[in-house]
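User: Can you predict the 3D structure for this chain?
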Amino acid sequence: PVTLASGKSLAGFATGTISMPNTASDVATSGTGAISLTTATNVTMLSGSSLTTVDGALTVNANQQVTPTAGNFNGVNVNAATIQSTGTGIATVNGKGGTSGGGQQGVLVISGAIIRGGNAAGITTSVNGTGGAATGPTNLGVVVTNGSASITSIGGNVSVIGIAGSGTGGDHHGVRVFNAASISAGSSGTV
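Assistant: Here is the predicted structure, written as structure tokens:
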């Protein structure tokens, strides 16, 4: 785990996969410290990993460049992991799926994973996903599924925008929420 001193920020840039594979893959800031991760391919967060800010911005960008990266991947895969701002910070996640086969999700939140923004006026949780322009079916923008997975906030507003991908076989949708998952806002926030 990596915890930065109060007010200190972390910015990471990559062309390939940013991988956070386990419970030791935790990055946290405090105070107004921010976290920003940007890659030309994908971000994979697996069981127990986390990104946490308090009042600082938390931003994850995957495959957002003008010419998308080719390949078989979900843009941002949050699997039993956590992306959160615990104070007034804004959590923003932007992902675009790959181009090979089917199931190229822009943002996948699965198996109890949480994306949660803070408690402040306006939007504190923003999730934008674009399904891949791929060759198979089920290229979805944003998918929230299984084990109480959720996109939510402590108290701010929540924005979720999904753009369906393309490919043979159909079943391309912007946003899909199922199997006990949810999109909500805490306190007086709205979705």
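The chain is about 0% helix and 40% strand. The CA atoms of residues 102 and 135 lie 6 Å apart.
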